[in-house]
């Protein structure tokens, strides 16, 4: 996919899923396919190890291959977390970088201009920088609520979503941005009311008994809100 096609899909994206490699369950392909049927637009492999220990590069690439096949079937974007080398090796559409990860200009040296780069932000200054920094295509703001998926990270809450929405409404060249952290169906309306149009979720889909239904319950209101 060209860089232009990737950026068009990013502009249309509303629901972004981060998942681990589901090593304990062994159902990665089935799980990702279900989430995509439910309306997920971007799938990121984010496997920080947990009880199974760190995911080695070869195992991460194998999991990325599985996700890539599902994403290709549903026209979704494949995202790699943290590692520019694995984004390049896997041919991923997206590389996501946090504040402590590789600087964007260095990541661009590794992956070139075609893949999309996203950044995490946790306060108005970081969000303001990511909204204009060269080489960045989208950014995320959060956590909206404290979340066990990212223990120890203080939550700026919905104030950061409101602030970002206001600034991006007034921006000459607004960038796609996503709210993240503690978001589920019960909280989605609050996040939309605060001004977000796109969200990232982990547990709301990874821990759901029916991942397709869980994804659909988020994707439908996000799409409906985008039409109003
Ligand atoms: C889409 C998306 N948004 C935010 C994050 C968090 O990135 P980071 O702050 O680098 O933390 P880790 O996920 O690496 O623990 C993300 N991964 N994806
Ligand atoms: C991975 C991550 N990054 C965050 C940030 O604020 O940058 S919050 C977060 C975890 C989101 O998980 P859940 O949907 O399960 O709460
Ligand atoms: Mg990171």
From TrEMBL:
Residues the record lists as binding 2-[(2R,5Z)-2-carboxy-4-methylthiazol-5(2H)-ylidene]ethyl phosphate: 147-149, 182
CDD domains xref list: TMP_TenI (cd00564)
EC number: 2.5.1.3
Pfam families: TMP-TENI (PF02581)
HAMAP family registered for this protein in UniProt: TMP_synthase
Family stated for the protein in its record: Belongs to the thiamine-phosphate synthase family.
Annotated function: Condenses 4-methyl-5-(beta-hydroxyethyl)thiazole monophosphate (THZ-P) and 2-methyl-4-amino-5-hydroxymethyl pyrimidine pyrophosphate (HMP-PP) to form thiamine monophosphate (TMP).
Stated name of the protein: Thiamine-phosphate synthase
Native species: Actinoalloteichus hymeniacidonis
Lineage of origin: Bacteria, Bacillati, Actinomycetota, Actinomycetes, Pseudonocardiales
